[in-house]
Structure formats: structure tokens, C-alpha cells
Specification:
single chain; mainly alpha; Arc Repressor Mutant
């Protein structure tokens, strides 16, 4: 069946615009015109309404749905996560504070013990040093006494029977002085 064609008159400026749109979309003017009619017929849009209230309402409805979804997610997920995180952070702070108090207390006790042990070791070292000095002094004293005694014995034996009591007394006195000088 053959289509009956009708004509529409429009200005040259409108024809230029129409031509550009048809070229841009890659369609013939007749096909583009037919598609424009179908579009306006189905969408019930008014071409003079540049604000397109239906489109605005559709966008607003979609935005409200998104906002509602976000609010539900915030209420069901984000707020409980934030609340639990805050509780966990507070618990961790308490644990850290308690740990720091206990560790610092224990460290102070250890430092006091170490200080006391260091003092004890220092005192023991000093006592050991004094004992060592005294033992060394005692050994030197023994050697000196032995030398003096041996010298006394030699001199006494060399005196013989005829030696006077005065010489014997001088020898004893000399030996006593040598011992006192130690």
C-alpha cells in the first residue's frame, strides 16, 4: 500500500537546523520527522516546555530513591560500625593505659631492684678489695716477721755462750723495734 504524503511548510532557518540534525543522526529528514512525532506522542512531552517537568520529576524521584538508599545504609551499616569502632577505640585506650601503668610500675620496680643490686655489688666489690688488700698485707707482714725472726735466730745462734746479757738484750730490743716498724 502506498503512503499518502502530506507536506509541512517551515522556514529556511528551521530547514537548516532540521538538515543539521538529520545529518548528525545519519537519517533522512522524513525518517527523523517520523521519529520525532513518535517520541513526542509516546513521552507526552511538550516541545515548548524547555524545563521538561516530567524529566525533572523523574530525576527527583531517582534522587529521592538514592538518598533513601543512602540513609538506610547509614542507619543499618555506617552508624553501628562507627559506634562499634568508637567502643573498640575506647577499650583499646583503656588497655593501653592499663598496660602503660603496669609496665611503668614494673619497670620502676626493676630499676629499684637493679639499683639496689648494683649498690650491693659495689659494696661486695669493695669488701672483696679490702679483704684482698688485707690478705696481701698479711702475707707481706708474715714475710717481714719471718725475715726478722730468721735474722734474730741467726744472730742469737752466732752469739754463743760467752755473749753478755746486755748484747742479748740489745738484739731482742732491735728485733722488737723492727717488728714495731712493720
Amino acid at each position: 500500500m502506498k503512503e499518502i504524503l502530506r507536506t509541512v511548510k517551515y522556514s529556511i532557518q528551521d530547514d537548516v537546523k532540521f538538515e543539521k540534525i538529520a545529518l548528525k543522526l545519519g537519517r533522512s529528514k522524513r525518517l527523523l520527522f517520523s521519529q520525532m512525532l513518535d517520541y513526542f506522542y509516546r513521552s507526552k512531552k511538550d516541545p515548548t516546555d524547555l524545563n521538561d517537568e516530567l524529566l525533572k520529576n523523574t530525576i527527583l524521584k531517582g534522587q529521592k530513591e538514592y538518598i533513601g538508599f543512602i540513609k538506610v545504609q547509614e542507619k543499618e551499616l555506617l552508624i553501628p560500625i562507627k559506634r562499634d569502632s568508637a567502643r573498640m577505640i575506647e577499650a583499646m585506650k583503656m588497655i593501653i593505659d592499663r598496660f602503660n601503668v603496669e609496665v611503668l610500675k614494673r619497670n620502676e620496680e626493676l630499676l629499684e631492684n637493679q639499683s639496689a643490686q648494683a649498690k650491693s655489688l659495689s659494696a661486695l666489690k669493695e669488701v672483696a678489695y679490702n679483704i684482698e688488700l688485707k690478705m696481701g698485707s698479711k702475707e707481706r707482714l708474715k714475710k717481714s716477721v719471718m725475715l726478722i725472726l730468721n735474722s734474730y735466730i741467726r744472730e742469737r745462734e752466732s752469739m754463743g755462750m760467752m755473749t753478755s746479757a746486755r748484747e742479748k738484750e740489745e738484739l731482742a730490743e732491735q728485733t722488737r723495734r723492727q717488728i714495731e716498724l712493720l
